[in-house]
Amino acid sequence: MTSPHIQPQSQPMRKVLAASLSGAALEWYDFNLYGISAALVFNKIFFPDVDPAVGTLAALATFGAGFVLRPIGALLFGHLGDRIGRKKCLVATMLIIGAATFLIGMLPDYRQIGLWAPALLVLLRLLQGLGLGGESAGASLLTVEHAPRARRGFYGSLTQVGGPIGYLIAVSLTSLFSLLPEDQFLAWGWRVPFWLSLVLMAAGLLVRRTIEETPEFARVKNTGTQEKMPLITAVRTYPRTLALAFGARIGEAASSQIYQPFAIAYVTTTMGYGKTVALLSIVFYNILCLVAIPFAGALSDRVGRRPVYLAGASFVVLSAFPYFWFLDSHSTPLAWTAMGLAAIGGAIGMNSVQGTYFTELFGTRVRYSALGIASQASAMVAGFVPFLATALVVAAGASWPIALLLVTVGLISFASAAALRETRELDVSEIEARTAPETATPHKDRTHA
Predict the structure, then answer these.
(1) Alpha-carbon gap, residue 319 to 325, rounded angstroms
(2) What's CA 292's distance to the chain center, in Å?
């Protein structure tokens, strides 16, 4: 075992970011490619014998299935990440989600093998969710635990940029192959982006294998002080913080699912805009995210994590009804405006600081487990939001129930984030020394509120 007197050294941040961002981008490419295909293709490939609206509903339900195993992935890889290290878990998560994505592209359709086709689709989607459940927390930790204190918000936000980068790659490839005649696109064109995940996975693994363990976890490992059951310790030590982080996350996770996979299906199937308008709207959204995310992250280094998070939650609440008024206008410029405004505020205001904020709330020995379960349990709930929103549109024949849903989740996030402590000035290597169990005394609980 390495001597505890040897202090781990931080690596250059450009190398850390290359490993974290490239992996995050590729993971989100795989996961979001499924979301795009669920909205545009899977209702015809895997559910062809039902009404188009019901087929879309079923396809979006399989999209939600990927979120079911995300908490399980968070538990599994959170435990391993707190016991054996962040790096090994990030390599494993990439292998799982990349292989599952490739195999989705190899699946026979419903007309070839009947009900086995959607059943296998759901199984592979579950494997994607298992991998991503461990990926999100690990990628954030890899960056934040290396970053200098004064710029943790900015560097932590750059990991979140992997989401729009992955989405842009996915939507670009899907758009390219959708130019094929529809029969060819449905026969084989939609599959090619899934097959390409093998190439992208190999590139990501090459980058990730070159990175070293984070200094914070290396210090714990060098002294042999890892927790035997980190999740149990986290629940005992941080019960209030875990509950509030879950609540804070729900508004970001749910609104993200409405702004992207649901919006594609809604404007295409319900509003009749056409595939090109829908996909270009999402491209516009994600391009703006590339600028908005690091800006908000850098802002949190100046004003704090909580003010930025509260602003994002407020935006979700205040923009919910105008967002759907614009989409329902049958005006392409107004639809694009709605998507752009959603990117500048709302989910992005929260997502940009979330990785850093949640990392700073927990001690190193339990951080992977705590961060993973707080974020992925809420993601599991949010994963069925596109299905629920589609069902509400079918039942009500209008968009106002979805706007009301956005208001509700935004208020939950606002109230939860308002109750969390500010963490901007904390040193992540000193959190254990400053943290006592939240249930110890009323005085100590207020200290960590």
Answers:
(1) 10
(2) 16
User: CA nearest 408: which of 255, 264, 263, 256?
Assistant: 255
Q: What is the mean pLDDT of residues 408-432?
A: 85
For residue 167, the Cα-to-chain-centroid distance in whole angstroms is 11
Both structure tokens of 51 = 């009404």
CB atoms within 10 A of CB 446: 10
Residues 64, 65, 68, CA angle at the centre, nearest 5°?
105
Exposure pattern of 326-337 as b/e (b: 16+ CB <10 Å)?
bbbeeeeeebbb
Q: What's the pLDDT score for residue 203?
A: 78
Alpha helices per DSSP H over 275-346: 275-303, 305-327, 332-344
**pLDDT for 251-305, tens place per residue?**
998 998 888 778 877 887 788 777 777 777 778 888 888 888 999 999 999 999 9
Radius of gyration, CA atoms only, the chain:
21
- pTM flag (> 0.90): no
CA 212 to CA 209: how far, in whole Å?
Answer: 8
Q: What is the pLDDT of residues 360-369, one digit of tens each?
A: 999 889 999 9
What 3-state class would DSSP assign to 182? helix
Interval 316-335 mean pLDDT:
90
Q: What is the 3-state secondary structure (H, E, C) of 72-98?
A: HHHHHHHHHHHHCCHHHHHHHHHHHHH
What is the pLDDT of the chain when averaged over all its residues?
82
Beta carbons within 8 Å of 226's beta carbon, 6+ residues apart: 82, 83, 220, 365
CA atoms within 13 Å, Cβ hemisphere of 32: 29
CA distance 261 to 117: 22
Contact predicate 11/149, CB 8 Å: no
* Residue of 86, 92, 98, 88 lying closest to 137 (CA atoms): 86
> Cα dihedral sign for 95, 99, 101, 102?
positive
| The two three-digit tokens of residue 445, written as one number | 């609980």
